[in-house]
Amino acid sequence: MLDPLHQFEIHPIIKLSLGGLDFSFTNASAWMFAITLLACLFLHLGSRNKKLIPGAMQSLCESLFSFVSKLVGEQAGSEGVQFVPYIFSLFIFILLANLIGLLPYSFTITSHLAVTFTLAMLVFIGITVVGAAKHGVKFFKIFLPSGVPAFIAPLLIPVEIVSYLSKPISLSIRLFANMVAGHIVLKIIASAAVVCAVNSLVPLIVFPVGINVLLTTFELFVACLQAYVFTILSCIYLNDVLHMH
Fold first, then answer.
1. Does 227 map to a domain?
2. What is the CA radius of gyration of the chain?
3. Structural domain for 177, as ranges
4. How many domains, the chain?
5. Helix, strand, coil: what percent of the chain each, to 5?
6. What are the tens digits of pLDDT across the range 131-156?
């Protein structure tokens, strides 16, 4: 059986070390760079020659932007619209990373917790700064909902603090776990097809191959869904700090 975890291994392409710290340019770095360039190219091609009757690329870009813009408006209100460019960039990056990770011989960067946690921390730090800038000292009232009896405060405040600090953890693990689990299952079933071929059980190959085709279709759905979930939760967290309870 082929090692299902081999696909997640990180290998240095250009080894760099500074002050005892490893700054090597790895296969993960290369794919992140490629996905960023692809996202920029996709948006550039979709917006460079805007027409009244849009072509396929312009229509796709506008549809995705309208989708995210509407999502932010619904979840974070009119005050959240100013953050649409960042939320949209986040959505496009995660969506492309998830989809490209399904291609043969590619690398799924969102299958690494370091990547998903960094994305989640950017959202967490961003919403915290926005909330503190808008509400000042009153921002800390987010840990004590209005109307709560004073005697419950010593118990409720620590719970609210833990809940708030756990947001980037849950946000990152959800994306990471879904990507890892799906790719492992695909690799295991693909390995079963290889075993059948090696042991001259060619007629049986149709079963793991058929299952993998169905699972790949399902993983395409999961890739899009997880980008959506990450985005909508980011919008909900933004709404929480803009419109505190």
1. yes
2. 22
3. 25-242
4. 1
5. 80, 5, 20
6. 999 988 888 888 887 777 888 888 88
